[in-house]
Amino acid sequence: MDLNSAAMFAQVVECGSFTQAAEALDMTKSTVSRKVADLEKHLGVRLITRSTRQLTLTQEGERFYQSCIQMLEIMSQAELEVTASQDLIRGRLNIAMPVELGQKVMGKYINAFLKEYPNVTIHLELTNRDVDLIAEGIDLYAQVGAVSDSSMVARPFHLSHRIIVASPEYLAQHDTIEHPSDLVSPHHQVKVSNVVKLPYWELTQDEQQEIVNLPYRLRVNTITSALLAVVDGLGVAMLPEFICRPHLEEGRLVQILPDWQLPAVPVSFVYPQRQLIPKRLRVFIDFMIDNFKQR
After folding, report:
1. N or C terminus: which one in the chain shows less Cβ crowding within 10 Å?
2. Cα–Cα distances in angstroms (integers) from residue 200 to residues 13, 142, 185, 244, in the given order
3. Cis peptide before 272, with omega less than 30 degrees from 0?
């Protein structure tokens, strides 16, 4: 098997069809199909399940595709190192991160990176859903919360501090909250249900610990939606401090139980383990972390 076969197979997977792959490779569809069939025969396994509507990778095909991507990246990087200046950073990065993190924090640093490295293209998806980096071809994900997948590399760069807030209107209509034990019905929360899985609130003060499991009247999947609902007096919420800060300063929100602390939530850049990651990805991560620390 040669590198051309691996590259052709990877192109078919990324295009999702023999027709589109043939157009991208400037070859006939029959040639591409025959080459993939020859590759399957050489390997002794079926890589792709073909149907009239779509192509589906077999388990062997998925594993072989990931190996092809790593091999092609290694060869591309090796070629750059011997034929081009190491100052030339180029290529595409597929990046995903939670909506508010991208909009409120990271956007300006991404823009600054693109200005400094004009030969890099970024495809950025802002989403609060769970993502599958390998299946979706994502190079980098900015994860809020603990990283549990041992197949991923994580570079922590920040601790996000949470606080409990409510509007003055809400607090005027409900019983006083002086202790975590006061956070029970008829109080209710605006719950954020996103990639940060926090089933209850764990508050500490000195050596004392209290668990709060407040019922919700509204559950949303973005921090911004929860913030707007809390400002409108719909309940109590646990939100990132930096999101709440301007509303606290302007009196639209009040921090509840400020002498009690909630666990800080780590924020990390996460990417699949590889023998050699593209230089553009290493440079992007370093650039983002350095700029974030200087903010």
Report:
1. C
2. 42, 23, 15, 20
3. no
What is the three-class DSSP state of 254?
Answer: strand
Q: Indicate the SS3 state at residue 139.
A: coil
Q: Note every long-range contact of 105-112, with CB atoms under 8 Å and residues 24 or more positions apart, other chains counting.
A: 105/242, 105/292, 106/142, 106/288, 106/292, 109/287, 109/288, 109/291, 109/292, 110/288, 112/287, 112/291
The reply to whether domains 91-158+266-293 and 162-263 share a CATH topology is yes
CATH fourth-level superfamily of 91-158+266-293: Periplasmic binding protein-like II (3.40.190.10)
Q: Which two tokens stand for residue 236?
A: 């109590």
Query: Distances in Å between the alpha carbon of 57 and those of 95, 134, 267, 289?
Result: 23, 13, 33, 36
The predicted model gives 70-85 an average pLDDT of 71
* Ramachandran sector of residue 209 (left: φ over 0; alpha: ψ -120 to 50; beta: rest): beta
The span from the CA of 269 to the CA of 285, in Å, is: 7
Q: Delimit the domains of the chain by residue range.
A: 3-83, 91-158+266-293, 162-263
CATH (residue range 3-83): 1.10.10.10
Structure tokens at 203: 């508050």
Tally of CA atoms within 13 A in the half-sphere of 110 that contains its CB: 20
Which residue has tokens 């939670």? 98
Single-letter amino acid, residue 158: H
Which of 31-45, 77-91, 101-115, 189-203 is predicted with the least confidence, judged by mean pLDDT? 77-91
Closest CA to 9 of 43, 30, 33: 33
CA-to-CA distance for 18 and 23, rounded, in angstroms?
A: 9
Reply yes or no on whether the pLDDT at 41 is more than 80.
yes
> 162-263 falls under which CATH superfamily?
Periplasmic binding protein-like II (3.40.190.10)
- Checking DSSP bridges between strand 140-144 and strand 91-97, what pairing results, if any? parallel
